[in-house]
Amino acid sequence: MKKMIIHGGKRLSGELTIGGAKNSTVALIPAAILADTPVRFDTVPHILDVHNLKIILESMNVHSTFEDDVLTIDPTQIEESELPSHAIKSLRASYYFMGALLGRFNRATVTFPGGDNIGPRPIDQHIKGFKALGANVVEKNDSVFISTGTEGLHGARIFLDVVSVGATINIILAAVKAHGTTTIENAAKEPEIIDLATFLNNLGAKIRGAGTDVIRIEGVDSLRSRATHTIIPDRIETGTYLSLAAAIGDGILLKNVIPEHMESFTAKMLEMGVDLQINEDSIYVPRVSDLSPVRVKTMTYPGFATDLQQPITPLLLRANGNSVVIDTIYPQRTQHIAQLRKMGADIRVQDNLIVVGHSSHLQGAHVEAGEIRSGAALMIAGLVASGTTEISRADNILRGYDRVIDKLRSLGAQVEIAADEVQV
């Protein structure tokens, strides 16, 4: 495990470029094994999840190279094999190999995935989709065994009981080579789903309706790469740096941004009194003085993202009054609260609401990043705080944020990564 050491209290300024979307990347890499040719992605984020996915690919004799921001994957010699459980358990999105392997081989065996501990994230809607496509699914000994008969997968009409990004993606991966037409109703609408569909369509898939609540997939026999796929900018990374810029910045420009993906987040910043300058593909955040409290309620896209309720918290601490956060997606996503209180933050859970009060002074402390977005909140708080903050389990931050140390230093932050002598 690593720790992040931050010497805070210094105003930051400058510009940085947002990397490719983590939540796209972790779906696109498993999707690559459906191709009958090598594939190439650019603007790939330098995060630990990518390296863990490369380990999983290698276990199947799928070779890959990652140089600069370009990831090349060659699935042409793919072999069925047991996937490495340590890599599977390190990231939740490894469950996309269920749909991808099912689409490639008509069967899959995957250890139940790990990832952040932010409350229950069942895979019942994934399994419902696989069964509708003609698969048999057995869960046993912490593994999922999926198989089909000799006829393989067939198209089906699937209505998701709850909107699920993971289930929507997994069903697309399984259905893209299935016989006939598959319709997913009550589908998730996230930009990362559009990104995946764009990649697969450029390989020859026939997917329509991505970005709406009804997606139709007409199965095809072959998928072949014709061009490099550019991954969309990471909207969660964007929101994290927008919060940072407003909380401790003296003028920060974020480049490689899709403002339309950020509207629910930037609307809250504008409501708080942040005078954002939103351009075609960039956002400038000026120095901020007075901030008004707001009420944040997480929703499925295009609502306020659950992944951004923690990163916005250090900014809410600066508001003149009590802000309220309601997470309807993952109500148990509260690991940051106790850690921020160690730094002097006025934040508490009250009647199932997170109440964030004005905190005029934060003090550096030893805290723990229990998961990616909690770690992001602590990172911003550490930059705001006086003195030194040490964040244990900083690997969780590195899992989700592209070259985060380099980017923070480019803004003038004093931050470093070191080995954590104490295993938490």
UniProtKB/TrEMBL annotation:
Matching Pfam families: EPSP_synthase
Catalytic center residues: D116
CC annotations in GO: cytoplasm
Official protein name in the record: UDP-N-acetylglucosamine 1-carboxyvinyltransferase
Origin species: Lactiplantibacillus mudanjiangensis
Record key words, sorted: Cell cycle, Cell division, Cell shape, Cell wall biogenesis/degradation, Cytoplasm, Peptidoglycan synthesis, Transferase
E.C. no: 2.5.1.7
Main subcellular location: cytoplasm
Subcellular location(s) per record: Cytoplasm
Family that this chain belongs to: Belongs to the EPSP synthase family. MurA subfamily.
Catalyzed reaction equations: phosphoenolpyruvate + UDP-N-acetyl-alpha-D-glucosamine = UDP-N-acetyl-3-O-(1-carboxyvinyl)-alpha-D-glucosamine + phosphate
UniProt record, GO biological process: cell division; cell wall organization; peptidoglycan biosynthetic process; regulation of cell shape; UDP-N-acetylgalactosamine biosynthetic process
Binding site for phosphoenolpyruvate: K22, N23
Residues given in the record as UDP-N-acetyl-alpha-D-glucosamine binding sites: R92, R121, P122, I123, D124, Q125, D307, I329
CDD domains, A to Z: UdpNAET (cd01555)
Role played: Cell wall formation. Adds enolpyruvyl to UDP-N-acetylglucosamine.
Pathway: Cell wall biogenesis; peptidoglycan biosynthesis
Domain Enolpyruvate transferase: start-end pairs: 7-408
Molecular function (Gene Ontology), one example: UDP-N-acetylglucosamine 1-carboxyvinyltransferase activity
Designated gene of the protein: murA
The keyword Transferase is annotated on this UniProt entry: yes
InterPro entries in the record: Enolpyruvate_Tfrase_dom (IPR001986), Enolpyruvate_Tfrase_sf (IPR036968), MurA_subfamily (IPR050068), RNA3'P_cycl/enolpyr_Trfase_a/b (IPR013792), UDP_GlcNAc_COvinyl_MurA (IPR005750)
Domain of life: Bacteria
